[in-house]
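Whether sequence alone determines local backbone shape is best considered at the level of individual chains. The sequence in question and its structure tokens are set out directly beneath this paragraph.

***
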Amino acid sequence: MTESWKKKIDARIAEEERMRLLKIKLDEIARKAQEQEKNQRQIRELGNKFQCCVCGKRAVKPLAIYNETRECVGMREFSHFVWTTPGDLCICKICKQWACSDHIYQEICQNCAEKL
């Protein structure tokens, strides 16, 4: 019975630690949700800005930049995204408009190819 005050202290410390860890988890969940919302907004904005000039398909991913690794020649590691350039559309060398992979060949979109 004389040790009950020590058990209360241990229980309180354990509860405070549990609450601290729970707060860390909740903060991480909230941060990930905000990050996902930001990425979805950026993808919507990218799609609104860039579409295929033939079919109207919207861009759904940004241009990804990779760096060569020093450890192994030919290996690349991800660096960052460029949100001002689509990564899934190519630019036509004739009309300078964006086209999806289904409507561009040898850097010429289907619209320009039909005019050749």
The first helix runs from residue 4 to 49.
